[in-house]
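Dear colleague,

Following up on yesterday's call, I've attached the two folding results inline so they're easy to grep. Please treat them as preliminary; we haven't cross-checked anything against experimental data yet. The first protein's sequence and structure tokens come first.
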Amino acid sequence: MKKYDLVVVGGGISGIAAAVSSAREGLSVLVVEKFGSLGGAMSNSLVYPYSGASMYSKNKRVIADKIFHEMVDRKEKYNDTSWEAYKLVFDDMLMESGVDVLFHSTVFEAITEDRKIKSVKIATKSGVISVEADYFIDASGDGELIYMTGCDYQLGRESDGLSQPMTTCFRMSNVDIDLFLKEKDVLQEKYENLQKENKIINPRENILFFLGFGAGIVHFNTTRIVKHNPVDPFELSKAEITARKQVYEMADFLKENSDAFKNSTVVSIASHIGVRESRKLKGVYILTEKDVTEFLDFEDTVALGNYGIDIHNPSGTGTIQFHLNPGEFYRIPYRCLLPKEYDNMLVAGRCLSATHVAHSAVRVMPICACVGEAAGTAIAVAQKANTTTHDIDIKTLQNKLREDGALI
């Protein structure tokens, strides 16, 4: 059985940041990723844009300054507006750091003893393999490792367990962008009228689109699947099917009602529906709405965020938002990454410990990278001190993160 210092479950933005941060400190690291590329929602769910990528306070960049901005800077060198270059960037970063990667592989069982995960079983194209490690990070997004190891978690919002809606992003080409921008308000009105007449099944209140992919290309983040459990395999499968119907519902609507789209084509549909919220760890500390909106400080702060509360209605139409002013930011404590049940495990990314409302702010890619960097650095600190994730010296961790430019 192969042995690593660290196994990271999930190769999304947070998993990449965690793996690279640990490997650069000399740890042997394995990333297990179910798809064929790194990047998680960015690569496989076409999530665009990343939110809250940069923020300055007292002339210092204070969020995701090391790993995330390294990702962005490396991507710029490819001179590719499609974002596909990020897949190459992520490959480069892991390979240069000496990280091993298993694509098309899924962790499906964890072997535990006392308060430690000893090994995991991984389903691969050639059957099952087992891998041991001293430490583990759940960066799966859906909290797959916390689930299979019996950690306490919350699904969706506290009142009824419903998660934020899922969305399948898509892109259309050969669009007259200038004309579309002139027509968009009229199209929005037509869309709302058809909704009232029950001629559009999508419950989302507006046509959400983004530009920036080059001439004639429009990115849509506008489908909305509500009241489906994102970690129930049958409901998730139904969500994929319904969302693709909404994609073509929107495409047909645009072609029929907009001169800008009369020659357009759907050129890309996400291979995996975008999941905003699913399982969230109930860790040693649970981040709250008050922590986010009142910018509370913690003795064990390891990550920062400046994206505001952004709740897409789990029940249907509407979006609740709370925006931060320039220069404002909140803190995320180490305890939000720390399961109560295990001494050699952390979480990173959107399965961190937070309430439904607080989670809506910290779930975005730059903050997930920031949390992943904190988790990976924490494991390196623990490994070098030969201690548990519960007993690491927080000041040492914070000093290391400051040294690296990831924390003020």
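Below is the second protein, in the same order (sequence, then structure):
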Amino acid sequence: MVPSAAFARIALLLLLVSVPLLPTPARAQLPAAVDGQPLPSLAPMLKQVTPAVVNIQSRSVVRVRDPLMDDPFFRRFFGLPGTPRERVRQSLGSGVVVDAERGLVLTNNHVIEGADDISVTLADGRVLEAEYVGSDEDTDVALVRIPADDLSAIRLADTDAIQVGDFVVAVGNPFGLGQTVTSGIVSALGRSGLSGLGYQNFIQTDASINPGNSGGALVNLRGELIGINTAIFNPSGSRGGNIGIGFAIPANLARRVMQQLLTFGEVRRGSLGVEAQDLDAALAETLGIMDRRGALVTRVFENTPAATAGLRAGDVITAIDTQPILDRDALHNAEGLLPVDRDAQLTLTRDGREITLPVRLTTDSGRYAGGSLDARLAGASFSELPEKWRQQGATGVRIATVKDNSRAAALGLQPDDLLVAINRRPLDGLADLRRLGGRLPEQALLSIQRGRRVLPLLLQ
């Protein structure tokens, strides 16, 4: 008698022999179409886009000093050299080729900031050395150039036309993994108020953006660049992962910054030439403004775009072009993003009536010549602090430029020094310099901050 287990095995074998073998596909595939309709796919668009998105690696050498090494007795006693140690700092990010003929690549300032060497890895594996063209810390936009040999570029879209709900795709190099694509929608427009960043007018998206995506592309479904991915929001801090709140610099803003970097090597901003403050409940009621939105002008400086346009103290600025102005910070933000030498419309409330005034910012309206303050400072120019510096606690005004062989250069002033006080009276911005207007005393003590040190400079 055949055991039951053996009988079962024999029956299974006979069954397999009697059933004809069916062909098995090598791998599972989605059908090309369902009911005659092709399945939607981003693949054709991405084939055009991804060759233009690059990986960027920057390298900088940082000198590290030990306080004991600064003590000559300690060095002599132990026979140690006084040369500071060095360490190499590396940064990984992404970039976007926006001009194939000239080899221009847009990225974030924080990706290449302070770099001694910048290398770009293309999607086809080529590694190219990049030339630094310029950067703007306030908008976190930077521009580099690579050899223009068989490159692909992405066309920049007009971001004034995008809307909340538009589908978008983010392409970058998250965590150094290599080129990665994520999708989502435009979640909001005109975002600002992010800590640690300068002038802000961000596109918010829920397309997954992570460390390493910085400088990468945010594109629409036509494969046009609508933004440069730059930041994420996470309540858990820098160690937290993506939670679906990412921010990109609009392509229109990046385009304006790029044009100025190519032309001047820097971004030249203007200033309306006003002091302003937020509206509180009492002021809003007095001025007949029900929603307490706007920036109250408290002073208009002479020979500025605001004075030329006819602004007055007591006006409440509620919009610049089509952008609402909610408070003083919003005014400062919009002012810094206005292109120079182009007309804009100010909407304001005056004596209970809404009026509009045309205004044009000039290229040099954001600078104050040192010679206008005092002849002994001729050759230097002063500007407002970058917003990022203010958020980090810096005060005063920035020394923007110092001409070679000038009186300011002979005093030892350097670009990016901060003038923080005059005769121990703190400065809060260019408004304080304009208020002095060439009336420094014969002996004036300037407090100059350079790095972490404050240096006294006596004019006499």
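For the second protein, one point worth flagging: The first helix runs from residue 4 to 18.

Best wishes,
A.L.
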